[in-house]
Structure formats: C-alpha cells, structure tokens
Amino acid sequence: MRKRDRTPGASRDPRGPRQYTRLTTPLVRDTKDGEFRRASWEEALTRAADGFRAVRDTYGPDAFGMFSCARATNEMNYVAQKFTRVVMGTNNVDSCNRTCHAPSVAGLTAALGSGGGTSSYQEVETTDLIVMWGSNARFAHPIFFQHVLRGIRNGARMYAVDPRRTSTAEWAESWLGPNVGTDIPLAHAVGREIIHSGLANRAFIERATTGFDAYAAEVEPWTLSAAEQVTGVPAEAIRDLAHAYATAERAQLCWTLGITEHHNGTDNVRALINLALLTGHVGRHGSGLQPLRGQNNVQGGGDMGAIPNRFPGFQDILDPATREKFETFWDTTIQPRYGLNLTDMFEAMESRELRAVYCIGENPAQSEADSEQAVERLRRLDHLVVQDIFLTKTAELADVVLPATAAWCETDGTTTNSERRVQRVRKAVSPPGEAREDIDIICELAGLLGHDWKFTDAEAVWDELRSVSPDHFGMTYERLAEHQGIQWPCPSTERIEPSFLHGRLWEREPARHGPLAAFGIVHHDPPVDLTDEEFPLRLTTGRRLDSYNTGVQSGSFASPLRRGEYVELSPEDAARFDVAPEEKVRVASRRGEVVAPVWIDPGLRPGLAFMTMHFPDEVDTNALTIEANCPIAGTAEFKASAIRIEKLPVPAVRS
Ligand SMILES: Nc1nc2c(c(=O)[nH]1)N[C@H]1C(S)=C(S)[C@@H](COP(=O)(O)OP(=O)(O)OC[C@H]3O[C@@H](n4cnc5c(=O)[nH]c(N)nc54)[C@H](O)[C@@H]3O)O[C@H]1N2
Ligand SMILES: Nc1nc2c(c(=O)[nH]1)N[C@H]1C(S)=C(S)[C@@H](COP(=O)(O)OP(=O)(O)OC[C@H]3O[C@@H](n4cnc5c(=O)[nH]c(N)nc54)[C@H](O)[C@@H]3O)O[C@H]1N2
Ligand SMILES: [Mo]
After folding, report:
1. Span 456-475, mean pLDDT?
2. What gap in Å lies between CA 191 and CA 222, rounded to an integer?
3. Which residues are in coiled coils (predicted)?
4. How far is CA 590 from CA 181, 532, 625, in A?
5. Distance (Å, rounded) from C-alpha 569 to C-alpha 254?
6. Distant-in-sequence, close-in-space partners of 206: CB < 8 Å, separation ≥ 6
7. Does 55 contact ligand 2 (Cβ within 6 A)?
8. pTM recorded for the entire structure
9. I want to staple 261 with a disulfide (CB 3.0 to 4.6 A). Which of 129, 257, 280, 620 is the partner?
10. Which atom of ligand 2 is nearest to the CA of 71?
11. Is the pLDDT of residue 646 over 80?
12. What mean pLDDT do residues 215-223 have?
C-alpha cells in the first residue's frame, strides 16, 4: 500500500542548506559585541556562574529564566528544574512544549485531571476508527504512523482533518479540509449531529461527566450547513464523520499542531475532548485521546517539572502540602506562585524584568514566532548562557557557550514518549572534543553557586526523582530494562498499570475514584491575523519528512530529499499571481518578509500557502509568523498568518 509523498523539490539538484558542526570546546565573549574565543571549562563555567549570581543578587531570583531541553533525558530535565528552583530560587523554567502541546496538556488537565495522552500506541492497532485531526503523522510521527498503518491493515477506518491534503490524508478513507482556524465550528457541528441523531452515549454522560447541558446549548447553532459555510467542509462529510465516530465500537482521536498552534489552542483541544465525552470514547482499551508529542522527550521534560507550574511528577506548585514536601526534601523555599512560561519570559525580556537566561538545547532565535522580535529580545539580556551540541543562531547571541553531549547516544538516562512510556537510553559513543554531559555541566554550575549535589550517575538522579514522584516510583532502571519501558502512572514496584488512563470513568461511581470529566464550553474565534486585499493569502507553517525543526540537527547530513525552503501554493494561486515553479518570489506579512522559490502543490486549496520552519538560515519563515498566543497555554499562532507574494523585479540584462 504505497502512497505518493509530496516532498517538494525531490527531483531538483541538491541545494546545500547550512551545515552545522559539533561544538567541541567552551566559548566566551569578552564584550557583548566581541568575537567568541575558546576558553577552558574552568573559565567558561566561572563566567556563566558569575553572571547568574550577579543577576540574581541585583534583580532577584525572578530575573533568571531556564529553557530546558526536550531532546535531553528525564534526568537532565529533573536537574535543570532543580537548578532553577533550588539554586536560582524561581519557577521560571520551561521548554519548547510551550510552542507545541502546552494547549493539549492544559485542555486534558482541565477536562480529565491529567495532561497525558490517554491511550497507548498498541491500542491504535486494535481500534475501529482513527481520526487524525490537524496532524500530519505520516511526516511528523513516522513511528506512530506505523502503528496507524497496522491498525488500518487490521480493519480500522481512518479520517483525516487538515486544510491541506497531506501525505497522511492520502491514507485516509475520508479527508475533511477545513479552512485554517475553523476546527471549533467543525467539532461543534460533529457534536450537534451526534446529539440530534440520538447517538450520544447518555449513560456515560450522566455517570461520568459534567457540563453536558451547557455544551448541548453551545453547539446547537452549529448545524451542518452553518458549519459548511464557515469551515468549507461539505455538510455530508461532517455528517459522515459524526456517524462514524459515534457508532464505532472503539475510536482513537489523535491531534497535533493543526489544533494547538492557534491563539485559541486550548479551546480547540477542549472542542475535540468534548467529542470523546459525548460518545464515551475515553477510558477504555482502544478508545482514547492522543496528542502526539513532537520531541523525543517533551512529555518527559514536563513530567520532570521543567515547566513553570508543576513540580516533578506533574505535582501542582500551588498545592501547599506538595510545596512543603519539596521544600523539606530540597531544603529550600519555593515561591508559592507559577513561574513565567517561555512566552512570558520573552515578554519579560522586553520589559527587562528578565535579565539572565540559561538556554539548554533550544533554538528560540529561529523557532519563536516573529523571530526578528525574538532576537531583539534575546539581545537585551545581561547574561545569556547557551548549552548545545551545535553553534546555533541562539548560541551566536550568547555570552558563554557550553558544548554538551547528544542525549540520545552519548549519555545514559531515560526519556518518555507520547504514550507516557519511560524508556532507557544508553551511552553508545563518546562525545567529540571536550563536550560534557548536560547533567554534569548543570551540577558544576550548581556547585559554583554553593550547592554541592552528589549525583554519581544518571540512575542516582532517577532514584531521587522516583522518591518524590509517585507516578514514577515503581520504575527502577532494572524494571525499565526488564519490561522494555513502562508507562506512567507506575506507583508500585510490584505491578504494571493498564495501558490507558481514566478507567475510573467506567466504574459505577466514578467520582469515588477521581474527578468527573468536564465538557468545555468554547466558542469559535477566527485567526488574529486577518487576510485582506493587501495580505490575501493564509499562510500555515509546519513540517516535512526530511528535515527537523530549525534544521540544526538535520542540516548536517547530505540527503537528496532535502532541498531547502519553498513557498507552496495551489495551482490556482500560482496562475493568479503569475508565478512559475522554482521562481523566486518575495513573501511578505505584517511583520517581515523573505524570498523563497515557489512550489505548486495540488493538495492546497486556493488562498492557502504553506512553508516549513526547517531552513531559517536561508529563509526565515518565522520572520512572517504572528506572535499572537493562547492566553491559557502561551502557544503562538504559528498555523495562521496573512501574507502576500510579489514577483521579484527581473534583473537588468548586462550587455
Ligand atoms: N520530519 C519531522 N518530524 C517531526 C518534526 C520535524 O521538524 N520534522 N518536528 C517534531 C515536532 S517538535 C512536533 S511538535 C511534531 C509536529 O507534528 P505535526 O503537528 O503533525 O506537524 P505540522 O506539520 O506542524 O502540523 C500538522 C498539520 O496541521 C495542519 N493545520 C494547519 N492549520 C490547521 C488548522 O487550522 N486546523 C487543522 N485541523 N489542521 C491545521 C497543517 O496543514 C499540517 O499538515 O512533529 C515532530 N516530528
Ligand atoms: N513557523 C513555525 N515555527 C515553529 C513551529 C511551527 O510549526 N511553525 N513549531 C514549534 C515547535 S512545535 C517546536 S517544538 C519548536 C522547536 O524549536 P527549538 O526547540 O528551538 O528548535 P530545534 O531545532 O528543535 O532545537 C533543538 C536544539 O537542541 C539541541 N540539542 C539536541 N540534543 C541535545 C542534547 O542532548 N543536549 C543539548 N544541550 N542540546 C541538544 C540541538 O542542537 C538544537 O540546537 O519550534 C516551534 N516553531
Ligand atoms: Mo514541537
């Protein structure tokens, strides 16, 4: 069952994207505008620690912020958040989870009491219906997609909901192509149709949920035809999805950034969760909700407390008993308020409330929306320390650069995937040059700032984490190896829990076992950056199979598949603007402009354009995107900007 993969440029000559080489020595800069010079570890660490101390002592703990690495291990993330809370005394710690699935965590927590995806990968193979909503898993989650394909082979039906007819949609029985930013009307129309057809699971709703009546009133105006008008999806296709989802014995609703990267991402997530509550497709084997996480350990980073509102084990900072437990355990005082998230931290750089950042394995100079503004803000910092495996654009702005090991092959530890499975990673090769392990570097800095932590190895960190996180208590390294990974929650060293969450909702009296599931009352709210005569095209941004995020890690290998950036247009728009394939055009938004060659994609509808974020050194797509963000989760609206394209002047021919 092979399908066509739309890899733009796959027949072109290779163009060389920027190549990154591994960092092998620490670098320091003597003046803000000066050049980097190589430094000894001792000098670089002293400079890094002195800068943090000076900012903390002059402006207070909250002038410091930590960006933690979603590619590094759980152990590293545990140590990074401990450094932030114990050494620097603030809860300002976050990671790239903010730019992708923070709305999923917020929405799932509000509705169900836990931010984790509810099912396991294996359940996708035995379910009856798979809905991929705003997710191009064929490109972005190829391992998960193998499970999807097995599910299809076993007889599952698949629906895809994406404005673009993606490579994922090519495998679906039905593709629904809504206008960007219209998922709430679409989901509400599905919900209304289920209710009006008598297909809602009344027994489940009554026993296990709250808020149904308000929900039914909220979706009532969204008739199939009202939704068709706003979303552009034919009424019949919406009806078909509603009936397929409600009548399936078991169903998996999977979503990713097409849902979350909006200024109302958390509301979008709630709209999808509502459908599972309406039909009882959660809390049972084979039925569940799966936000597919983007980075190898972005789930684990949050679980380890590298987020501003949770201690390790997703325990709430605001709960006094929990705070006391950690204060006693770490012998410290924890501020009784949430820290700044990544988005807040960038705003606090603008106002100079944030003065020092320790950035470990993140490249926000290129990954933040409205990148020019992000770079300006990073430049305002008194002290920026970047710890990475490559000299990124963010590292180029730093005062001190610390060369780290690559978590996935040069260190020991664990990572946690989207199905909450904690797995071991093992050191297989030695790091280049003088590069050192992330954990060791953080502990050295803690030592210079007066905190002598005696972690002999990654397992010692893990055992400390286990002792404070009930969800992880039962996962010793020995058991993790024995079971080839274990899903959380795992509170006992004797048992393995079921592969899915929220089984309580199917008990006779769910409220005795935990919170009831809450319908979310959310309204349609179109994208902030409106299209008009001046900016007539809707730009959505995302990924291709052959490259990774800001291109730092995928830029260094030669691949005939990876051709650089394009602005992808529908055949109709290419004709309307009189541009040809490969022609370089100017792409402008209300924030900035770039020049990129054209690629024509028949999977795009007129009015919709697509670019990736993979080649910012050649084409800085985030110069175009809008920084409008979700007030609950802080995630930016990467998926909806307004642009125009302009033909470039033809160069004068020299005689
Ligand atoms: N090859 C590769 N794999 C990756 C990555 C990579 O860079 N390259 N990055 C990783 C990371 S960090 C993440 S978070 C994941 C992301 O994984 P995905 O979320 O699957 O990837 P995206 O391409 O960003 O967005 C998914 C889809 O959302 C659609 N979309 C846009 N706007 C809307 C909308 O309004 N509604 C709906 N329903 N859909 C919309 C887009 O057309 C796109 O096809 O991928 C991970 N995996
Ligand atoms: N336009 C647009 N922009 C987007 C998105 C979009 O869809 N559209 N998506 C957003 C999303 S979902 C995400 S997750 C972000 C990603 O944004 P970032 O996380 O800022 O980007 P990456 O390129 O993944 O950067 C990862 C860095 O980690 C380093 N690294 C890797 N392993 C290790 C390690 O073990 N230790 C250390 N110390 N460093 C390591 C790499 O060298 C690299 O510099 O981008 C966001 N930006
Ligand atoms: Mo992501």
Report:
1. 97
2. 9
3. none
4. 19, 11, 9
5. 27
6. none
7. no
8. 0.95
9. 257
10. 32
11. yes
12. 98
